[in-house]
Design brief:
about 250 residues, mainly alpha, two-stranded antiparallel sheet, 10 helices, 4 strands, about 45% helix, elongated
């Protein structure tokens, strides 16, 4: 029996009893087996009595405790932390002002995800930002929550991931590069803070390299012919010829 004040997260009949009831065993089972089943059931019920049980906020908290999250790369975790702001997006739930994070995970479908992402994009663009990449990353976070939930949370197991089939936004290709003046401003700011950062900036620019490719460089990569750059993401290793500016860097 679930008291009326606690029924929000439970499926009960009109008398307040769980539907379906929890089966603890058979009358011929050993008493310790029945007690063990009862203890496990009570622990689950206590879990469900949490006010935010099965909300997206709760799902995010549980996801962060999981192996799926802990095995993510540092950069992916950083990107996901930035994307958590989508759960703070304000909306109306049954006439009450709330946030996306307060939505019950089982109530979310692909049409809600689509409308939410469209609204998020409009908000970013109203602030003068492009927004497409950020919205795509926010969708990736939500998809990861449901990928975890459908594997580890019984109530979500029957669900289809609502992010599946929701199209990503097409990201516009950058059509300009920073000017020499813009680079100089950034370079001078870097000089004021960290002694090594201007060197990394110069090498990144002159070698047409990613930051991580620059920090991968070793003394042995500097040869008489030039600098050997081992590229990431499947690109081929390249040899960059020296010039005076590269020698200085």
């Amino acid at each position: 029996y679930i008291p009326i004040s606690q029924r929000l997260n439970f499926n009960t009949d009109k008398f307040g009893y769980l539907k379906p009831p929890i089966k603890l065993g058979h009358k011929n089972d050993a008493i310790h087996t029945i007690y063990a089943a009862y203890a496990a059931a009570e622990e689950q019920l206590q879990h469900q009595r949490q006010p935010d049980y099965m909300t997206l906020n709760w799902l995010l908290t549980e996801y962060k405790k999981s192996r799926l999250y802990t095995e993510l790369g540092v950069e992916t975790k950083r990107r996901y932390r930035e994307c958590e702001k989508i759960l703070e997006h304000r909306l109306d739930i049954n006439g009450t002002e709330a946030t996306v994070g307060q939505l019950r995970a089982t109530d979310v479908d692909s049409t809600l995800i689509r409308r939410l992402l469209d609204k998020r994009l409009a908000d970013y663009q109203a602030k003068g930002k492009a927004g497409e990449s950020q919205c795509n990353n926010e969708k990736a976070l939500l998809s990861s929550l449901y990928r975890y939930g459908t594997q580890y949370i019984k109530e979500l197991a029957p669900m289809k991931n609502p992010c599946h089939g929701v199209d990503r936004f097409k990201v516009k290709v950058r059509d300009r590069y920073v000017t020499d003046d813009e680079y100089l401003i950034q370079y001078q700011c870097a000089q004021a803070y960290l002694t090594y950062l201007p060197i990394v900036m110069e090498l990144t620019y002159l070698l047409a390299a990613r930051g991580v490719e620059v920090t991968d460089l070793k003394i042995g990569h500097s040869t008489e012919l030039g600098i050997i750059v081992k590229r990431r993401k499947g690109s081929k290793t390249t040899l960059i010829k020296r010039n005076e500016r590269l020698k200085a860097a």
